[in-house]
Amino acid sequence: MHDLTRCVQPPAVSHDGFSSLAVPTYRASTIVYDDPLAFAQRSERGLDGYTYGLHGTPTTRTLEAQLTALHGGERTVLVPSGQAAVAITMLAVLKPGDKVLIPDNVYPPVRSLCADYLAPRGISHEAYDPLIGAGIADLIDSNTKLVWTESPGSATLEVQDVPAIARAARARGVLTGCDNTWAGPLLFKPLAHGVDFAIEALTKYVGGHSDLLLGSITVRDLALRKALKGALGVLGIGVSPDEVALALRGIETMGVRMAHSGRVARDFAERLQRAPAVARVLHPALPSCPGHEIWTRDFSGASAVFSIVIRPEFKERIYPALGQLRLFAIGASWGGTHSLIAPMDVTADRTVRPWNAAEGLVRLSIGLEEPGELWEDLSRFLAALQAG
Ligand SMILES: *Cc1c(COP(=O)(O)O)cnc(C)c1O
Q1: Is 254-386 a domain of CATH 3.90.1150.10?
Q2: Nearest to 306, CA basis, from 335, 277, 338, 330
Q3: 36-251: which CATH architecture?
Q4: Among candidates 144, 147, 148, 155, which has minimal Cα distance to 105?
Q5: At what angle do helices 241-252 and 58-71 cross, to 10 degrees?
Q6: How far is the CA of 284 from the centre of ligand 1 (A)?
Q7: In which pathway does it act (predicted)?
Q8: Ligand 1 in contact with 250 (CB < 6 A)?
Q9: Are strands 360-365 and 305-310 parallel, antiparallel or unpaired?
Q10: 290-313: per-residue pLDDT in tens?
């Protein structure tokens, strides 16, 4: 063999005796076939076959299978972000003339997707009160094809009666989707409550280290998996096995990370209720959070993201008080090992249940730092708020 050929033909080495606990990272654009007939018939390999790197490698299939099992679904597809998981689901389901219902507290870029991208293409939307429950039936008309849910919702954390919404939609032949990013499959399983599409921003608790972007869509119905595959194929969307390898590592510790930071968050949420500058704490585990009784009924635990509502007289001190924090980093994309805090302005995004703009809103995500030191940091924030 010529040296130049040697350079492109790595020698086959023995795998005998090699057994690792890590999932190998298989990278590929090209998939190689045994013979021309196999290549010519590659489209017959079906939903799970390997045909082209964009459509999956054993690495991506492993995470998909793991999420499918956790959700009690049939199949999962991976996409490049949580936002992509919502967008791909809507693009796979909705056609011009159709309508999608979205909760008023939906992740803000989803509202923009509906208003700025889907609406000009003839797909309409309507925001609904996240606490509507079975009352969603009154908003479903003959054009409604999808009811979106997000529970608890972004920033204000209202918990939705997802089972009641899914029942009402199903009775009218309407599909439902649930953005389950706050709870993840360990704390809530949307498919078991009648939802058709369970989506997650794996960027958050599965990744768990603020260093990757990935999303997933899990379904029970293979016809929906086929529709998703169709959309992904023509849009040219796939995920990097390297991102997936990070997620496969992150998911191994998700249970202990979430249990720890969920416990600390709940303790902090209770203590923060007593701070003079705090009007209410919005954590689903507290009775002051709208939908708390549904959280108690449907969820098996609490995660570490919650918000505090600041009384109007302290609102203008929020920015300088945030400047006093030393451990909490200011930023979005929660669910990592570092605790995060961020001021939120939801006024423009609440069209059904108006938000009292006089109050301040601050969102926290508790990480894995020593809880005593974290509380000292929060105490500095509270002292600065109240010093004004
Ligand atoms: C972060 C988040 C998303 C988007 O996830 P990305 O991976 O950052 O695109 C979607 N939904 C919810 C509820 C989120 O918190």
Answers
A1: yes
A2: 335
A3: 3-Layer(aba) Sandwich (3.40)
A4: 155
A5: 40
A6: 18
A7: Amino-acid biosynthesis; L-methionine biosynthesis via de novo pathway; L-homocysteine from L-cystathionine: step 1/1
A8: no
A9: antiparallel
A10: 999 999 999 999 999 999 999 999
Give the H/E segment covering residue 374.
Answer: helix 371-386
Neighbour tally for 2: CB within 10 Å: 6
Q: Is the CB of 150 under 6 A from ligand 1?
A: yes
> DSSP readout, 55-101?
G--HHHHHHHHHHHHHHT-SEEEEESSHHHHHHHHHHHH--TT-EEE
pLDDT digits (tens, 9 = 90+) for 327-362: 999 999 999 999 999 999 999 999 999 999 999 999
Per-residue DSSP letter, 115: I
To the question of pTM greater than 0.90 for the whole model, the response is yes
CA 91, 161, 82, 348 dihedral sign is positive
Q: List the beta bridge partners of residue 309.
A: 280, 361
| Domain extent listing, the chain | 36-251, 254-386
Q: Is the pLDDT of residue 151 over 90?
A: yes
Ligand 1: which residue has its CA nearest to atom 15?
Answer: 181
Sign for the CA dihedral angle at 308, 314, 318, 322 comes to negative
Q: Which residues contact residue 360 at a Cβ distance below 8 angstroms, ignoring those fewer than 6 apart? A: 309, 310, 311, 312, 314, 315, 318, 343
**Ligand 1 lined by 213 (C-beta under 6 Å):** yes
Give residue 333's region: left, alpha or beta (phi > 0; psi -120 to 50): left
Verify whether ligand 1 is closer than 6 Å to residue 146 (CB atom).
no
Long-range Cβ contacts of 86-89 (<8 Å, 24+ apart): 86/110, 86/113, 86/148, 86/177, 86/179, 86/199, 86/215, 87/113, 88/217, 88/228, 88/231, 88/232, 88/235, 88/237, 89/146, 89/177, 89/197, 89/199, 89/217, 89/228
Give 293's contacts (C-beta < 8 A, 6+ positions apart). none
Residue with tokens 């416990």: 263
Q: Tell me the best of 78, 107, 156 to mutate to test the pocket of ligand 1, counting ligand atoms within 8 Å of each CB and taking the most.
A: 107
- Which residues, 6 or more positions from 171, have their beta carbon under 8 angstroms from its beta carbon? 137
The answer on pLDDT for 388 being more than 90 is no
Q: In the block, which residue shows the tokens 């529970």?
A: 151
Which of 187, 333, 344, 363 maximizes ligand 1 atoms within 8 Å of its Cβ, making it the mutation to test the pocket?
333
